[in-house]
Design brief:
The protein is of the alpha+beta class and 147 residues long. The protein has five helices and eight strands. The longest helix has 11 residues.
Length: 147
């Protein structure tokens, strides 16, 4: 989680830990501290595993704005991808995972292990690879405005 927090700080994004209700890990906010964009608040779910995984649960649809997958984690680096629920769902659907019994039971978790699967996921996740600046833009484009 420290890698995600570091990128948010680099992007000038304010954030707080969130109570674990509905799977939210962080609440990120932009549009304050003199920045010109509209004030936005974003509920973020962070998926960090010792092995690269793609998880998606139906209960997140209404409660999570961004799902952040942390891959290739070391003590100093990580690949961080941020997807909306709809984007993550579309990728799972394309792979046929939304037709499984697991999905019908509420969600899907996939260990991205073999070379072919890893290549497919790496290619399809690459547009969602974050750094500080991209994280801020992602929050601005995906997350809801708050009055």
């Amino acid at each position: 989680m420290k890698h995600v927090e570091q990128q948010l700080r680099e992007g000038g994004v304010d954030f707080d830990s969130a109570p674990k209700e509905h799977g939210t890990d962080l609440i990120a906010r932009i549009g304050s501290n003199g920045h010109s964009e509209a004030r936005k608040e974003c509920k973020i779910r962070i998926s960090v595993n010792s092995q690269d995984r793609v998880n998606l649960y139906q209960k997140w649809k209404e409660n999570i704005d961004l799902i952040v997958y942390v891959w290739n984690l070391t003590t100093t680096t990580a690949d961080i991808y941020a997807l909306s629920y709809a984007e993550a769902f579309a990728l799972l659907k394309e792979r046929g995972h939304t037709k499984t019994e697991s999905w019908k039971d509420g969600g899907y978790s996939l260990k991205v292990g073999n070379c072919e699967t890893r290549t497919w996921w790496s290619n399809h996740l690459s547009p969602y690879l974050m750094d500080g600046k991209r994280f801020r833009a992602r929050i601005a484009s995906v997350c809801s405005s708050r009055n």
